Amino acid sequence: MIDVRHEVPVWLVPGDGPELATEQDAVDLIGATFGSGASVLVVPVERFPERFFDMHTKLIGHFFSKIVQYGFRLVLLGDVSAHIAASTAFRDVVRESNRGRDVWFVSDLGELDTRLAARG
């Protein structure tokens, strides 16, 4: 579903649906948004399996790269605190991602709105 937040077209991926983890899942997600005008894809963390957050699987990096390669920004929406507590490497990914423009981890839509208002 497309939504415009702070003049930024955002595609809000439903919380229910098949899990997302692979590069092909990223391509399928991009395909679902084709022609919508969205520049930001917001995906609830519930759509990702536990193994996605395990840095050893490299799923997260491949998924992020595919989304960014196609010119989208990606926002993971929801609580990832348990994953941060369990993995220093994941904590570093979250911190570095949130410093940039391409991938953000936000706890709720209010935090997304704050970030979009500040950076667009």
From TrEMBL:
Origin superkingdom: Bacteria
Sequence ranges assigned to domain DUF4180 in this UniProt record: 7-116
One Pfam family, short name: DUF4180
Protein name, UniProt field: DUF4180 domain-containing protein
